[in-house]
Amino acid sequence: MAAASKYETTADAVLAAVGGPGNVDSVTHCATRLRFRLKDAAAADRARVEQAPGVITVVESGGQFQVVIGNTVNKVYEALTRNGDLSTSSDGGSGGGVMARVIDLVTSIFTPFLWVLAGAGLLKALLAVVAEVSPGAAATTTYEIFFVAADGVFQFLPFFLAITAAKKFKANQWVSVAIAAALVYSDTVAVVAGPDGADVTLNAFVAGGGELTFLGVPVVLISYLQGVIPIILAVYAQSKVEALANRVLPDAIRNFVAPMITLAVVVPATFLAIGPAADYLGQGLSWAVNSLWSLSPVVGGALLGAGWQIFVIFGLHWGLVPLFVQDISMQGYSLLTGPLFAAVLAQGAAAAAVAIKTKNSDLRGVAGPAALSGILAGITEPAIYGVTLRLKKPFVYACIGGAVGGAIAAAGGSAAEGFVVPGGISIAATIGVGSFAMQLIGTGTAMVIAFVLTLTLGFTDIPQKAAPEAGTPDGPASDGGPAQVLAPVAGTAVPLGEVADKVFSSGALGAGVGVVPADGHVVAPVSGQVVSAMPHAYGLRGDDGVEVLVHVGIDTVRLDGRGFSPAVRQGEHVTAGQPLVDVDLPTLRSAGYDPTTVVLVTNSAAYAAVALTTGAVAAGDLLVTVEPAAVPA
């Protein structure tokens, strides 16, 4: 009865804080979070939700109000739906208002290959350093081959966008790629005779004074290489034409006639109307932003430097990503990127100051790695959610530093060449645009301000928790020896901070690692009881008291079990190495999901120390070792 009452208390407190049953449109849950869709988001009291017993934090994203509970979320969900007159739904829709839908559209299309863009951009940044330091090396064919490797993704961006847009608009991705190929063809393959009789590309033909028409209608031809908006709109048009063709064509001819009709309609329509209109729209947006920037780059840099990490928290930064990519595709850089380095590295500096100043060893253990991740790689989610935003004041200090540093960088006209994640390593991407010295001064100033303010003005520290006694409901039932958690899947173990989920990577749900899987055979990491079993996630309480969450993939709850073949049920007792689930990794990857398997010790706070393994592991290898806290005499 006591346990059930605890879950009901959490459920009642959360439901009241989100505005009561009347404000809930629907609610569902994944392995760690309650996912609400609210009728009026403003009616929810976020602070009150976060103060509810059992709630770790709140994340608002994509029209959802997500309440992070942890391993017992299913119990809270049961109490919530039993006590309230609530409807439930699958977790697949975009929901929300216009802004939420725009953000959902942008994230769906850009996220799957964003890290490829970032990696290629970083390689271009390093090549820029080489060109500055050794101009002779930049004149070699070796340099050119590296440059081709870095620049290829930007030159042929329509192919990447075609695949992800097809998934978003539920179109045939191979037809989408064929449309992208037709658009890129106009810039790359000689197909029509030029003024001197030699074959040239369609673009060269028009540039040479030739008249390009389609059924007598003049074609305003633009360059589709590196294009962003034209291919997205073309794939959207494809989805409509394709749906109509599939609906009216007989089964016997649909498979090959539908693609023929779609290509015959969409490609000419793109050349005649969609492409030129999209190009004008993209150029107009870029011109408007750059014009405003030119009026007062200092003010623009200060606003973006102060607000960038706030945008990240609410997911609003995705609305700017298409502008970045559009500018980069047109001119090789975007002035909007210059102030971002100050904004990002300031958060890392604030986290570093917290690591020095806090008296809480658990917080220090999160803050140190989070600072390193933010400063070097520009990955600030662990710093934001695990440290600065959690303490509030350091987040504000970092925003102040970002504003000052962003203004300085923007005043120098600094910008990144190519798409990079702003960080200490990738700052080299700003060497070739504007004043690199001003960029370094601005970023350094931002870091100093954030670090010094956090260290001197301070923050309300989190009290150190006393370790629960062994054998208590919240403590490990151990015989005094270390508990071991084995690798549930073969692959490469990576630090939790590198996992692409801000709640997992922050350490808020417990210490652990991510495993990039080599195969889809997932086994039990401990011997014990299965306390929760979902197709994509499994909570286990080991016989020695260690509580483990095995979460297969990032945000894979949206697959509704597709690609997962569970081998256990809730309540079963399993032995270490026993199969939990078989996962079709190609299905996950083709659907655009990261298959990284997160392994967390959700009651790690009850232990004195947690040792983690990284690198190549086989299923059953030692992954995590936890040392129990000393039992008071």
What is shown here, in short?
The chain is of the alpha+beta class and 633 residues long. It is built from 20 helices and 24 strands.
Mind explaining what this structure looks like?
- With 633 residues, the chain is α+β, with helices and mostly antiparallel strands.
- The chain has four domains: 2-96, Glucose permease domain IIB (Gyrase A, domain 2), CATH 3.30.1360; 156-289, no CATH class; 296-456, no CATH class; 483-628, Glucose Permease (Domain IIA).
- It is 49% helix and 16% strand.
- The protein contains 20 helices and 24 strands.
- Helix 17 (393-411) packs antiparallel against helix 18 (436-456).
SSE layout and pairings?
Blueprint lengths: L1 H16 L6 E6 L3 E6 L7 H6 L5 E5 L2 E5 L4 H11 L14 H36 L1 H4 L2 H15 L1 H13 L3 H16 L3 E2 L5 E2 L1 H6 L5 E2 L2 E2 L10 H20 L2 H45 L1 H18 L6 H11 L1 E2 L5 H18 L3 H17 L3 H11 L1 H19 L4 E2 L18 H21 L26 E4 L4 E5 L6 H4 L5 E7 L3 E3 L4 E6 L3 E6 L4 E6 L11 E3 L6 E2 L4 E5 L1 H6 L6 E5 L5 E6 L2 E3 L4 E7 L5
Antiparallel strand pairs: 1-2, 2-4, 3-4, 5-6, 7-8, 9-10, 11-24, 12-13, 12-23, 13-21, 14-20, 15-16, 15-19, 16-17, 17-21, 18-20, 22-24
InterPro entries: Dup_hybrid_motif, Glu_permease_IIB, PTrfase_EIIB_Cys, PTS_EIIA_1_perm, PTS_EIIC, PTS_EIIC_1, PTS_IIABC_b_glu, PTS_IIB_1
Subcellular location: Cell membrane
Main location: membrane
